[in-house]
Write a structure and sequence with these properties.
The protein is largely without helices or strands and about 525 residues long. Among the domains are: about 90 residues, no CATH class; about 80 residues, no CATH class. The chain is built from 9 helices and 10 strands. The chain has a two-stranded antiparallel ribbon with strand order 1-2. Strands 3-4 form a two-stranded antiparallel ribbon. Strands 5-6 form a two-stranded antiparallel sheet. A hairpin with a 2-residue loop joins strand 3 and strand 4. The N terminus is likely disordered.
Amino acid sequence: MKFHLLFYIIGFIFFGVHDANSQNSKKSPGELSRSHAELEGATNCVKCHIVGSGVTRAKCLDCHKEIKTNIEADKGYHASSEVTGKNCSYCHNEHHGRSFKIIRFDKNKFNHSKTGFTLKGKHAKLQCEACHNQHRITDPNLKKRKTTYLGLNQDCKSCHDDYHQSKMAAKCSDCHSFDAWKNAKSFDHSKTKFPLRGKHVKIDCIKCHKTETVNNKTVQKFTGLAFANCTACHKDVHKNKFGQDCKSCHTEESFQFNKKMNVFDHDKTNFKLAGKHKLLDCNKCHKTTMTASVKHRQCNDCHKDFHNGDFAIQGTKPDCSECHTNYKFSPSNYTIEKHNAAKFPLDGAHLATSCSSCHKKEGKNWTFKNMGQRCVDCHKNEHKGFIGEKYFPNEDCQACHNTSSWKKVAFDHNRTRFKLEGKHAAIACSECHYRRNEKDVKVQKFIGNSMECTACHKDNHKGQFAENGKTNCTKCHGFDQWKNSKYDHNTSRFKIDGKHIGVQCNQCHKPVINEKGKYIEYKFDSINCSKCHS
């Protein structure tokens, strides 16, 4: 029975629907767009639809082979993460009429990088049609379409003429960028067989790479140049009198550089040429004749002592090589390790301080001797006259501060008459020791600071608990929590007993306002019952 019912349903779906569609095309969900108009009619439904499953991605790609090819090759927009896994009908829906645009997207907002070809430089400024046109498409089937964004090749030569006529690397981006074709910034001449050095670095390319005609086009010649010897480019002004090895006397830095000095091996003398000495004209040292003896044991034989004898030892001239080299006078190679072996080791913030900050003050000459070793020899004593000798002996800043951070104070306040307890231990020194005067200027105060609570804190009780003009807040309050009073009411004139036990403080102690201001009244003139009870 079940088998016959199943056969009947399948027959009804296939033959019944087919017959109905053949008799009346209006059974279709709607007209197809112009792109798919040729598929109109019930007999063509299965070309896109699977009975019971609807439209599938596979059916679409059976027709749109150019997109399928791109997806399989993992190329183009349809292979991007934005499309992968989605059915074609998610973006390209049908049966909405002939004029319905099955392909819709905003060209101005389209993210081209999802195609695998990010638009950079001048490409980013082009209109889409500049690249996406029939002239650029190589596929004959796609070329027939009036509008398509498929069929382009990412190879530069597919859009641009090969200026080098296949004589250079196939990948143009190895040398050129997308911003300016003529600026081959990516090309590294040092990776060629002829690295550019010296004056060659500044020469315009056209000086060496002349133009030639290839395939009836004028191009620069970049390959096949002779460079084994200088005379391949430069005229031999000596007419081969000294042979073809130009480098035996000259360098690429300057034609006049050595004046035949490379013929003479200066290293065989007692003074080897190194660093900037190699760049000097011979006459700078050899002022009379090349064979005349030149004093050279110490730098001061030729150079003035820039430090005016600061580093002279027992009258002898200093050896500059301990701090400087022949390659560069500045910076000095006097290391931190060497400085730490001297009388003033560098630590903390001094490690990050430039030499000139200490050794060349106020734009004057460099100074290295007799500079002092105490903090106050370089730094102004900000506390002079404000802190007593007991806590600041011999103006020694390190009694409280260190070189790592000036703001980190290591002073033991328990040495004073006022020990820091509770919240006092957590506040910054400046909270108590720096106050604003009547001119609203911040001044420091260490000597003579009052230890009374009211010297820093406002007396909210308006002097109710003052004894002999002073209020001892610690009788009721601690240094941790101001609101947690330790006051024992039974030590007062009015002991708490009976039903008074458990009564909230504010039931008896209420706010008052008088010439002293607004405050809570704690001390009463009278403690009679009638004071509270009528």
